[in-house]
Amino acid sequence: MSKHQNEPESVILTDETGTERECICIDRLTVDGQIFVALIDAECEAGEYFMMRIESEGDDGTTLQPIDTDEEYERIGLLFNEHLMQLYGEGIE
């Protein structure tokens, strides 16, 4: 993730085929003791984001994991939508 406070945090994600893409963290929420991040692909249209869960792995740092269920993804998505609307005051997909 980014080192400078004024810059958005970015991360390189690698999918199951080995394809890498840069993503930018636009928001973080803690829900039921779990930390979730909203990310946008650095090359995608503004307003489209996806979410992942941050997992701690002790001294090895952290990893991003997919959200386990459709129900949890929907619930966290609603919370992010509300929070992003408060921050940015515009529609988020």
Summarize the structure.
With 93 residues, the protein is of the alpha+beta class. Helices cover 20% and strands 39% of the residues.
* Oligomer designation: single chain
End-to-end separation in angstroms reads: 24 Å
Helical amount? 10-25%
Number of helical stretches of at least 4 residues: 1
Radius of gyration: 13 Å
The coarse overall form would be globular
Major sheet strand order = 1-2-3-4-5
Q: Tell me the number of strands.
A: 5
Q: How confident is the prediction overall: mean pLDDT?
A: 82
Write the topology of this structure:
Elements (H helix, E strand, L loop, with lengths): L9 E5 L5 E12 L2 E8 L8 E7 L5 E4 L4 H19 L5
Q: Can you walk through the features of this model?
A:
This protein has one helix at residues 70-88; strands spanning 10-14, 20-31, 34-41, 50-56, 62-65. With 93 residues, the protein is of the alpha+beta class. The chain has one domain (10-88). A 5-stranded antiparallel sheet has the order 1-2-3-4-5. The longest helix has 19 residues, at 70-88. It is globular and about 35 Å long. The protein starts with 9 loop residues before the first strand and ends in a 5-residue tail after the last helix.
